[in-house]
Specification:
The complex is a heterodimer of chains A (331) and B (386). Chain A has 331 residues and is an alpha/beta fold. Chain A has 13 helices and 14 strands. In chain B, helix 3 packs across helix 7, helix 8 packs antiparallel against helix 9 and helix 9 packs antiparallel against helix 11. Chain B is of the alpha+beta class and 386 residues long. The chains are: A alpha/beta (331), B alpha+beta (386).
């Protein structure tokens, strides 16, 4: 009941800063996709789980020292931007690609939390290693997204051809691929790992390494709220910096007791008062790591090698381990 | 003031108030919409139609390429696909519907039972489910893409049917022209037959010579072109690295849609036909057989012509249903107007108001045109009193 009334009750746009509103309300309102395994999906107990979910929990942990003070509202891809602009949600943490047109259309993307790209799911029996070998193949797609445009551009610029079959939703697309209507299923790689799990025999299918597009996923916020922008960006950087400094959810208490390195001391709030600049307490990053963990913790817990999804770190590894995740220093 | 005048004044005043309220509502809604669109940075208007589309479509009846075609071209591709599916659906539904409808009144128990079972089963299951069943059935029952079944140069697999396709460019246009000439001959024969019947001259046979001409003329043109050194080129489908390529492909989505639409609508048409036939007085059929006409002659010459005037009006609304129902194609991946235009184009351009308005206008136009043609036909079959 309350859930249904939420949009009507929500304030129309920020009169004061988002952080002040969130603090006054006592909880964060977070827009998620609500149906992507590993990113945001309720588990069997009704608890929200996933990378996108963890990001909002980290924000709540930094603000309230309580990762449970978040209300998650699932957003369709059509409604997500309106929900943010109307003030229904404080932050959109929903596998949304950061593009110029979206950035300039009344919203901001403070930081890239996940590097993705459009990939291909194919049968192992085809023995394909590269997308180029899909020349003349039939490819199944979900219609109405940039995947259709990326695919046409990629094949055309390489002088290759393909046949396309498009469907209105992902269930139909996967059904068609699985029944043999298509040789490949193309969408964001992060989604393909979840789609592969839905097939009857996941180990008979493989996701090609190559990506044919850049899909940087970033949380979205309203334009013109610099303190909130800082907080959203630094919540992610704190998780990256913690991983780089070797602080994890498992060892954070011990590190806090016995830390010698000035880097670790600054992250954990033992030295300096860096959190205050964000409108928070000095132990803001310690709260994030204690309740949610560092970026690697969250990645491994939700989508990593130990999960059914088995998404490799790839571009999402730390910068000093061959990836792109790089956090500016906390000092 | 007399009482009646007072009431009529009040009625007029009420209607004016109502009209004002509706106008006000429309005004508020449209200014609201304009404001919101402006806020989202969407430029209203139809300029987007000339922008490059950039996406591919699986079935194209007219030239279309992602790189060069516009949203208008994509719209036309979708429109042609809708028209093709609807037209084929209407023809097939009519054929099946008439056969089943006549069979429901057949003295043969088996034919009657089968026809009843068909009507009751098909009419009472939602079309959406039937389409999904057809689509899954087409994919599951047919051989896989790696091992397509070969039928004398044609191939069939779960990727669809690939037929050899004649190349009608160059001098080969004579073949379809000869076919059209055959059709024209049928029309002329029918006219002569009509005149003969009215003036009491010996009857003119129409269908046998007419159909023979439509087959013979193109055949002669084909052979003649071959003898003259310009043989008609056939494009044969062949196996490629992944599946059968070339020739004339018929997609499984298209096949499923046409089969689903025509079998579903045929069940309704069968009932309309049965009702129409039953509306003809029993004595008509009995009189015909008393004159020595066989059952099929009695049906063809006496009963069906009289039944048509009861059949055509409800038949029209079934034809309209076929066109409108063809938009369910979106659920089985057939690129009809709704799939291409309301799906992909709307999503890429965000021009929701324009796209929805155009689509509604198109369905309205198709439906009105169908109804207009059927009304013309209806005027011909209604009872003409002498």
């Amino acid at each position: 009941m309350l859930f249904c009334m939420a949009p009507a009750l929500a304030q129309n746009g920020p009169a004061q800063g988002t952080l002040a509103q969130v603090k006054a309300r006592g909880h964060l309102v977070c827009g998620v996709s609500g149906g992507v395994a590993g990113f945001s999906i309720p588990d069997s107990q009704g608890q929200w789980r996933g990378l996108d979910v963890d990001f909002c929990r980290a924000l709540a942990a930094a603000i309230f020292d309580d990762p449970a003070k978040v209300r998650f509202i699932p957003q369709s891809s059509a409604a997500r931007f309106t929900a943010l602009q109307s003030g229904e949600i404080d932050v959109l943490s929903r596998n949304t690609t950061w593009t110029l047109s979206r950035d300039t259309a009344a919203m901001n993307f403070p930081v890239i939390t996940f590097y993705d790209g459009q990939g291909f799911l194919v049968r192992k029996s085809l023995n394909i290693a590269s997308v180029k070998q899909l020349d003349r193949a039939t490819i199944c797609l979900q219609q109405g997204t940039t995947t259709e445009l990326n695919l046409a551009d990629w094949f055309r610029t390489r002088g290759l051809t393909y046949k396309v079959v498009t469907f209105a939703n992902s269930e139909q697309t996967l059904g068609a691929y699985e029944s043999g209507r298509c040789d490949a299923y193309s969408t964001d790689k992060s989604s393909l790992y979840g789609e592969r799990l839905k097939t009857a025999h996941p180990d008979e299918h493989v996701i090609l390494d190559e990506a044919i597009s850049k899909e940087p996923f970033a949380p979205g916020i309203r334009q013109g709220d610099d303190p909130w922008r800082d907080l959203v960006a630094w919540t992610h950087y704190a998780m990256i910096d913690a991983e780089e400094a070797g602080i994890s959810q498992a060892n954070v208490e011990e590190m806090r007791r016995s830390a010698l390195s000035p880097d670790v001391k600054r992250i954990l709030g033992l030295e300096g008062k860096y959190g205050e600049g964000l409108g928070l307490t000095t132990d803001w990053a310690y709260r994030i790591i204690r309740h949610v963990g560092n970026y690697g913790d969250s990645f491994e817990r939700n989508v990593g090698a130990q999960t059914p999804l088995k998404i490799p770190r790839g571009l999402n590894a730390l910068w000093n381990q061959g990836g792109l995740q790089y956090g500016p220093p906390i000092r | 003031m007399p009482e009646s005048r007072k009431t009529s004044l009040r009625a007029v005043a009420l209607q004016i108030l109502l009209a004002l309220a509706v106008a006000g509502l429309v005004y508020v809604a449209s200014t609201n919409a304009a404001q919101k669109l402006a806020k989202q940075g969407i430029v209203a208007g139809f300029g987007f139609l000339s922008r490059n589309a950039g996406f591919d479509i699986s079935q194209r009846l007219i030239p279309y390429a992602a790189a060069t075609s516009t949203y208008l071209d994509a719209f036309l591709v979708g429109l042609c696909n809708t028209l093709l599916a609807a037209a084929l659906g209407i023809v097939l539904a009519t054929l099946i519907g008439f056969v089943v409808g006549i069979a429901r009144l057949s003295p043969n128990l088996l034919a009657r039972g089968l026809a009843s079972a068909y009507v009751e089963a098909v009419r009472n299951v939602p079309l959406l489910l039937q389409l999904l069943v057809w689509y899954v059935a087409v994919r599951v029952a047919l051989p896989s893409a790696e091992a397509p079944a070969s039928l004398g140069g044609a191939f069939v697999s779960q990727r669809g049917l690939a037929l050899p396709s004649p190349d009608f460019s160059g001098s080969a246009w004579l073949v379809p022209a000869a076919f059209l000439a055959g059709i024209l001959a049928i029309a002329m024969l029918r006219r002569r037959a009509g005149i003969a019947a009215e003036t009491g001259r010996p009857p003119v046979r129409v269908w046998l010579p007419g159909l023979a001409l439509t087959i013979l003329l193109p055949g002669l043109a084909w052979i003649g072109l071959g003898l003259a050194g310009h043989p008609v080129v056939l494009h044969w489908p062949a196996r490629g690295p992944y599946d059968v390529e070339g020739g004339l492909p018929i997609l499984p989505e298209f096949a499923a849609l046409v089969l689903g639409l025509s079998t579903y609508t045929a069940a309704f048409i069968a009932e309309i036909v049965r009702a129409g036939l039953s509306s003809v007085a029993r004595g008509q059929g009995e009189a015909a057989s008393a004159l020595g006409l066989s059952r099929s002659q009695a049906l063809r010459l006496v009963v069906v012509p009289q039944a048509m005037r009861a059949i055509v009006p409800p038949l029209t609304s079934q034809y309209l249903n076929v066109t409108k129902n063809s938009s369910l194609a979106v659920l089985i991946g057939y690129p009809d107007l709704v799939h291409v235009f309301m799906g992909t184009v709307l999503n890429q351009t965000n021009q929701a108001v324009e796209v929805v308005a155009i689509t509604m206008a198109v369905y309205l136009t198709i439906s009105l045109a169908t109804a207009f043609l059927m009304n013309l036909y209806n005027r011909r079959v209604t009872l003409v009193e002498r």
